[in-house]
Amino acid sequence: MDKVVVVNFGGQYAHLIARRIREARVYSEIVPYTEASPEKLRTLEPRALVLSGGPASVYEPGAPSVDPRILDMDVPILGICYGHQLVAKLLGGRVERGKGEYGRTLIEIVEEDPLFEGWNKREFVWMSHADYVAEVPNAKILAISENGYVAAYRVMDRPIYGVQFHPEVKHTPRGMLLLKNFLFRIAGLRPTWRVENLVDLLVEDIRRKVGPGEKVLVAVSGGVDSTVTAALVKRAVGDRLVAVFVNHGLLREGEVEEVLENLKKAGIEPIYIDASERFLKKIEGVADCEERRRIIGEEFARVFKEVVEKDPSIKWLAQGTTYPDVVESGAVVGADRIKSHHNVAALPRWLGLKVLEPLRSLYKDEVRKLGLALGIPEDVIYRHPFPGPGLAVRVIGRFTREKLEIVRKASRIVEEVLKKHGLYRKVWQAFAVVGDDKWVGVKGDKRSVGYIVTVRIVESEDAMTADWARLPHAVMDEIARRITTEIPQVTMVTYAITTKPPATIEPC
Length: 508
Ligand code: XMP
Hints:
By secondary structure, this protein is an alpha/beta fold. It contains 15 helices and 18 strands. It has helices spanning 14-23, 38-44, 82-90, 175-186, 198-209, 224-237, 255-265, 276-283, 289-310, 323-328, 347-351, 364-373, 378-381, 401-420, 473-486; strands at 3-8, 27-32, 48-51, 77-80, 94-109, 122-135, 139-145, 150-155, 160-163, 215-219, 241-247, 271-274, 314-318, 354-356, 429-443, 446-460, 466-468, 490-495. The chain is globular. The structure holds xanthosine-5'-monophosphate (XMP). The site of xanthosine-5'-monophosphate has 17 residues, from loops.
């Protein structure tokens, strides 16, 4: 299988590069620049390399760099933005601070090259840079921007390219074509990869890592990520999989039974631990949501520790971490920590287990395809994502059991109405949130002061960005009526109409 390695210098769009390459049906994975030594890269056997963008300046002391020997690895290389500048510098060119180009920019192709096959002489591209290549190394300039900066070059007699713009973003209309030209015309790769091909590769990787007699713990939640992880581990090590399903008391209505049944259909029979009282006692009255996340993460670790202590042959923890979790938890160079998604946090350190994260470089839609290839039932595959800390992140302000019951009931209503109208699978997530604000109501001629429930229904491709769902008014009306009728403590239903960004999907 042809593989392209994307070396990440902390660029905002690095993850997109790998995703686009996989969309072009060539397998691609990301390696942080700190781990991109020629020796390490060679073990990955890439057929081409892409060097990503990044926030630094190549001439700053301590700026991210790589061993220049990777340029002699005899594979085609494409440097993008920071990567374009770094390659130029490593080969003896010069990089300087310019006046900056941001957003839609016109470039002119000045030299014909297979990289630009199918491009017009002048095209719009998406730029985001202040530094520029002031002097190319021993290379031919292929394109120049409307401001006179080098927009693309090719190193003389070698398949090494730099582009200052971002071909991986949709705002560069012919960007995908450029990437395909690089992959197919320049690197001579074949578009044979499908996400399904990953099954054998991931299973093989788990087998290689897990020693004979060693068991692998997987915390399953019934969601697609952990179910796919457990299914992969099961394929790799059979009954040395120890799947554990913890009920933290923050699940949706009917979820325990549903999850156990779904897992059974997927061939996984977990140890079920009802720890709801333990969790709820600890978070009752806690107003700060990050604090609740921390407590829940810690309590999960305790529960798992008890499991591990009972069975010393458990040596590994497999987690269903996907790429957006990694980015948003700040585990990627240059990315800010938005929320402490506990699945990538301290669990393994607590447990003293080695970690497997087979889905780490994948997006949700890719995990879903993988799950279908593994024969996991569609009910699991198309279940909406549900945060690890459960309904605890859908209660704003002081956590109380009353508010928990309100979001639990309201969320069920939201899901039921969407399913009834065939809309459930069309949206990314749909749930209810409750805070402390009250609204005066009149129920049966009596004044009643009740909670405000906010309904959040979003569309998204990968949870990195999201838009609120424009639902038919009749459906919204049905949701609002059922919530105020069936949950006596609620007098007002509102609808959340802010995109991500600036908001996140969950309230906290
Ligand atoms: P936000 O709210 O950050 O959420 O826009 C992005 C996606 O991640 C889910 N989410 C979590 N998933 N553990 C998880 O496994 C968590 O702690 C967590 N917090 C948020 C959220 O539901 C959305 O799909």
